[in-house]
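Researcher: Quick sanity check before group meeting.
Model: Go ahead. Protein one:
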Amino acid sequence: MTQFEIRDQFYLDGQPFKILSGAIQYFRLHPDQWEDTLYNLKALGYNTVETYIPWNLHEPHEGVFEDGGLLDFKAYFDLVSRMGLHLIVRPCPYICAEFDFGGLPAWLLNYPGMRYRTYDQAFLSKVAAYYDWLLPQLVPYQFTHGGPILMMQVENEYGSYAEDKDYLRAVAQMMRDRGIDVPLFTSDGTWIEALESGTLIEDDIFVTGNFGSDAPGNTQALQAFFDRHGKQWPLMCTEFWDGWFNRWNEPIVRRDPEDLAH
């Protein structure tokens, strides 16, 4: 069985491995663009591609699932594999990704009193039904099954939203119960409140950071968090932002290239 491990560094079949990854999200491109875009990523020297899986697009109406056309993630994963790239997949219920409602399906609003992204049984039951459809389709694509997926994300920037470890553990367990056996991870901002609230470091689930400038300072903060919890893990930025979002009627945010470079 092939193996991807997270120890003092990443290991692929027992050999040290450096992840060089870029985000190419299949649902944002026409399928005719997938191959050229992945080719360009590989030509830059990258060995891995990362994508979310958006719940709102795949289950637009409760119990009605879509996976055709630009939502055909299996066709995309097959192409990634044929091109010799690895995959990082983020199938978490909430993805943000500049979607309305963070990628949660709008039909959840039909349930008054539901507490989203918490250990609320009404919410978790909807996640479970979605995962019953989704996760078995991801199992064959895991690296442990000869596929390209190295690891999968449990939740996205949860430390900026709440601190409900029972919820995070429930989502992680749903993934394990449905056959996900590659390493799991979370991604959060690197300030201590976000890391303490949004991670499952105490459960040995890998922790990554999200930032777009001051890489030395952010990686030092991540290292300090690892040290505090006695972890000797590689430092990884899951989202390195090279831009910033704007709000209506406010000046356009322009980033200094030096911030990105350093």
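Researcher: Fine. The other one?
Model: Protein two, sequence then structure:
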Amino acid sequence: MLRVAFLLSLAFCYAVARHEQYKGYVLYEVEVANEQQAQEVQALRNIPGIDMWSIATPSRPGYTLVPGPLRIFFESEVVGAGAKFKIEVEDVVEMLKKEDELLTAAEMRSNSTNGRLSFDVIHRYAAVDAYLVDLARRHSTVTAVSGGRSFEGRDIKYLKISTTNFQNTRKPIIFIQSLLHAREWVTLPAALYAIRKLVVDITDRDLVDNIDWIILPIANPDGYEFSQTRTRFWRKNRSTGHIIGNVCQGVDLNRNFDINWGTLSSNAPCSDTFHGRAAFSEPETAIVRNILQEYRSRIEMFLDVHSFGSMILYGYGTGELPPNALSLNTAGVRMARAIDAVKWASKPNYRVGNSALVLNYRDSGSANDYGQAIGIPFAYTYELPAYRNQANSLNGFLVDPDFIEQAGRETWEGIKAGARFVLQHSSRNKH
């Protein structure tokens, strides 16, 4: 008991120091009454330092993280637009310390064992990397593949899960990736839970026998580690090829794919949506591209898992609809209903639709759009729910250990529904 208390005390001291950069930051909830207000408020996302976590629309509020020196400016601009705001979290540092406290306490109780990762903590890169290798060693259906190395040299591994070692070309492939955006920690359990249900605790044999799977749990390892150790709300990767004086590192990997690249994203290196020097300028996006291209003739569903918002989105980010938009929507609704059937009652139902229409803003260069553009029939972005808990001040990207396994479980239900849709509509499985 004393050891646990001592470790919690150390973690608290470390958290205070690590989160000092967020001293004075405030999280706002913003409400808009019409489209004009929404556009005026949305324009504030281009102001350096203002971190718009979600876009306010007439049908739902948005959330924005604002540093102390910009509070008066932000509030006056919101009011000037005719919109309304309220302070959701006055002291973001306290919110960050609470997340650290909860996760550290959970780690002390963790039931992780050799060869099995628990779902009571958010696992670090090294633990996940070792786990993938161990799974491949233990299970004949699993191959751990090194896709290449990140900007800082970390190995980016993915699993190929197949009862036929990918040799049966009649089987469709489903490709799942998570953590393209570093701060979206709750997406990792979704990928790890899918791996568990396909390899360790198989309850849906048809999905293992009739589909080949590719799962990339940590698509942005450098950014992920940086968010774990230095800057909790870091979004981008950690590349430095575009900067002068070692400021404003990183590229938004979900704006770096070669689909309308650079048209609806930022060319400012300090922006969280900076698209990089060129399409696929980043090793992380090049790795995803290579996987998609290698198996493009067989991948029938691509799921890029993000947070937050309780949404299943499809292309294109410009607002243009793919030719198979009706089928995309049908499959998306089926996945959403499967999640809604098992989600916590406190969470909103999933929304399904074109990303530009649902999110109320347009983007370019996303992984989802690229997958759709190269011919993958069903390409989606999952936006997992936020953990919003007023009791402990957690919101947005922050994770409560109580929600980790639930996030994995409910997302798996959506994945299962999507996989069965693929099986029903794939010509590959019709013998």
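Researcher: One line on it for the slide.
Model: The mean pLDDT is 92.
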